[in-house]
Design brief:
about 400 residues; alpha/beta; Rossmann fold; 5-stranded parallel beta sheet; 18 strands; elongated
Amino acid sequence: MYETILVPTDESEGSREALRHAIDIAEKYGATVHLVHVVDERVYAHYGGVDAIEHAEEALADAGEAALDAAAERVEAASLPVQVHVERAVPWEGIVDTARLVGADLVVMGTEPRSGEYRRLIGSVSERVLRTSSVPVHLVKAQAPAETEFEVREASEADADAVRALARRSMERSYRDFLDAEGIAEAVATWYGPEAFEELLAEPDTVLLLAVDGTEPVGFAQAHLLVRREGTTGELHWLHVDPQYRGRGVGALLFARTRAALDERDVDRFAALVLAEYDPGNAFYRSQGLEPAGTRTVRIAGEGYEEQVYVDPAAPEREPAVTAHTGPDGETLYVARDEREIGSQGPFFAAYRSPDREDRFGWFCSNCEGFDTAMDTMERIVCNGCGNRHKATRWDAVATE
């Protein structure tokens, strides 16, 4: 009955609910889903000056493309063909014109409550589409915020298989353009294999939260406390959501709970990491109020990629903590407790030959309280005395060359 379905998308709860209905209909009839985001030309046209108009239009278009990317992932996760469109027009005109352009058999769009005054002044987009569309329009009412559907709890050993499966599905959907299934499988095994997962849960400076729908795990967030000279940073390394649950508030809920858990540990600042090429992830962190703070290079399957670092406003620096220890040759060495790296059996602390930190010695292993440490071929810290090693939690652990 339906071969081509058009869904207007703006990341509102109404459009997310409409997409859920559109996917159900498309699965029933084997239809292609077209997604459209209309950049409202009335908004940026009010900005003064050519430069202001261009910047406003670009910002609105970027936000729309991020919303389309997230929606397209949900359609693709259902194994349905999808196409995306960005239009610059009055919203209802852009939707009707796109429906005509793609030959849509059906328009599925969401509605949200608006005041009578709003309707009088602006009018309802859905009502105008209903009046002017030459094809059927299926209206879907927005439900209550999706966050109420899910529970967030700390991960346990019993969640190991679920975490591995979530990480694999999420990475295959998000990073399929530059990392193959073999590389993803190796990364997941390295970070979340049985022994690695057990160590991850035992690490006191790690926060691992799981979102569940009833009893079904649907996403997880992994963060670490990193102590540096300038203070303690709560660093969000991973935020994975099952592709079938994207667009339902799981990511935002995990993000908020992770921030709260780190705040309880008195972090001085917060940071989040995402590959620079992954636009939906970058758009998500910007939507959470974080600001880009530079990039760093990571290696994935032998290739170098840029990873974007996002931060919240910087907090004031605090006094560093340096303690004196006797080194292997009887010399006095100074261990900086505020410069730490994660270890499999305990953290590593930077060691110096002088309290002013001008002359670096190496690393101090907190597990055996020794200085006999070195770097392995992957530039990870290893203690020669007890075997403690710097745990890889991100891309540099992927060795598929």
